[in-house]
Amino acid sequence: MKSFSIVFKTSRKLLLALTSLMFTGCIKTPEEPKLSVSTDTLFFKGNEAQSIYITTNNPERRQLYIDYPYWWIGTNLSNPNIVEGDTVELKVNSYLNNYTTPQKGSIYIGCAYDEKTVVLIGLPECCNPHFVPDTLFFPLGTDSVTMTIGNYGDTPMDYAITASSNEVSFSPASGQVPKLQHADITVAINRENLFVEPNPKLFVTIGDNVHTVLIVPERKQLLPNEVVDAEYARATDLLVYVSSDSKLNIYHPDTKTLSSVELSYVPLCVSVSPDGTKAVVGHNSYVTYVDLMAGAVLTENEVAGNGSDIVLTDSGWAYIFPTYSQSPYIRCIDVTINNSLITLSTSGLVSSDIKAKLHPSGKYIYGVDNGSSSSDMEKFDIQEGTARFLYETPTYTFELGGDLWFEENGVRAFTRAGTVLKTSEVHSQDMISDGQITLEGSSNARIKWLEHLALRNEFYLVLQGDYDWYQWDYEPNPPYVYVYRSDDLGYKTKIKTEDYIMFIEGSWASFAASPHFVFAHSNGNELYVITKADGSGMVREWAIQTIDLE
Prior knowledge:
Helices cover 5% and strands 49% of the residues.
């Protein structure tokens, strides 16, 4: 019995093992349901039709979902059903007649248990099958970017790269791109040296074609604060602006550096002396006198209330123009002296909210009413220190718009509405019409800022954005600097301001640069444009952009 028991137990184990092996070899494990497609890429040349064949191993009938968010393709099916044993033919049609560049996309095919994506490449018949970008943009702080060149053809593509500048390097310099593929080339620049070379370029040779790629390093300098008001000292080539963080800031164009002077009060406006060595800042109830060469505050004087604008002379006299809430006189003060006596303008009342400029002669101030529909121009004699009202333009004679700028010799004044007036010490010949600047846009177009450069017989202006009556605010200013001839007021060209580039969620996004001020270097070689990235949400949305004048 003992030996039998051992044999029985052994036989039972063997039987269980054989039974397990038998069932394991006979039972098929169910496969995961999935879709299969006949291709992962469709290539279209012009308008044509191609097919994707779809099958499944799922014995249960399910609905397919097909999505293609592109205008240049269409299909014969919407959302058909599919079951094991079926072959669904999805015909894809390309519509490329209205396109001039290669198109790329994908078509999504999915159901409850699986999904597939098929890449779509469309090459219009008029289009070169090789894609090379027109421009490589280098944002501030970025000296190396990736240039992608694409082969949309059905044969391999050889390429070779050269550059117009030794300050541009790239790798690899040559190679081959398989059909329907792309190559990434690393392009680097020596930013500092590259700025002295106009319009550096890459040349990408593919077969008999040479593609030109413009190298564009971002030249604007982001500012650390918000610009309130600005002026340019042509005599010393200093760009001066005041900011909402209670600073007077000095930008040195020749060294591309920025310095600042701490102010005791929040600034409202700024004016620079004609000799370019001093500035005066208007605050609520105070004015601050600053030495631009030393970067130091010289005096702080208390005045009654704030002002709509302020003007400074070489002798150190400052003129604060009244707002609606102030008495209708100019407050005149010698800011070279602490606790200086304030005098009020004489010989007539002054309009409220005037925008004022010192005439290049240094003898007079002209101002334009910025709040009235009549928008008169007024003239003041300042030769004795205290301003004396002289006269104004006849009511409703001209449309002035509310601000003005002088050409360098002071013979003419340009106004915000584009009206040009002659100036003279003879009353009968003063403030008379001398033409009209044709402004781009609507009949309500207005000049935001203007700069005259006699050296080039040109003036440069930026425009105010249109007023949005629904938002009760102005739209962003058009992103251009407009160039005109100063002798006949003829329009020459416009220069687009550099977009702001911001890295958002893994990719670069661009925002238009709204210009607010434009200034010219005394040598006539460069413009400096203060811009703002309206609506971008950037921490630093103000910048100074340099534009070369060729």
